[in-house]
Predict the 3D structure of the following.
Amino acid sequence: MERSRPGRSGGENGPVNPRPTLLDVAAHAGVSKSLVSLALRGDPGVSERTRERIRRAADDLGYRSNALARSLKQGRTMLLGAVLSSLDNPYHTEIVTGVEEAAREAGFSVLLVHGSRDRGHLAGHLDTLLSLNVDGLVVISSWLEEEHLRAAARRAPVVMVGRPLGAVDGVDTVTNDDARGAALAVDHLVGLGRSRIAHVSGSARPAGLARRAGYEAAMRRHGLTEEIRVVGPGVPVADLVEDGYRGVFARNDVEAFDLLDHAHDRGLCVPQDLAVVGYDDSALARRARPRLTSVHQPRGRMGELAVELLLERLGGRGEDRHEVLAPRLVVRGSTVPGESPSER
């Protein structure tokens, strides 16, 4: 006759008993609760024969350890939350890779959520992570309102990777020097003899505005004020070429990739007819044809640094820190024909 299992009784629509506990496993194996705890924890003081009996009892009952409850008793969940605007830009996911690697090295796991560029969803996901008592939050989004960031920072350490609308007390930041990156793009195109350079940007977010300001400042520095032109990502590239623009600096690699696609559809040669520079140096840059010249952000390092700042907060640091990392330009075939990647 089959023995009934705690935690699994009840018919299809009947009640379900609570999950089996350490006491249930102890009774099933004929040992004490403390011995079960030691065995399942891997304590060397338990004989292998007894440990195996306890493991079989746990398997028979469908017992699962409650890691969250155990970690709460220790004062840490060893969980970090990562909040993204969306998953459609490799820039975000490549930062998360850095977060996960640094977290793993420090003994933490990472819970990932994204809001599909919806502020309401992002705020809801933020509350969910906080309700799970994560030890810290990495926010890879500028879409969260300051009030939500401020409230979250009162409950757990928060680091924002990216440019916020304004400084938020209690929130550390890791950013890229966007104005410098834009200047690198303009200087490169001017150095190639492209004096009419357009900037493609579909964003009014802080990073996009900073890159636009950097583009405009660099154009003025080169005496090209009259050539400044900022357009949305949907502008027909053929119109730009017809108007005499032979260089384009895009806000990010996604928008640059669209430019390459549109140029191909219209029979334009890149870079002969139009030289294109992106921003982020994401995986897209290395997969485009021609390969995309792009401003490199150290995305992995940005994620790692975010975790380092969280750990400092957990260690007792009280003052805010704002880290700005320098970009560099990686030159490829979208601006120099046949050029293999180089760092400038």
About this structure: The longest helix spans residues 90-105.
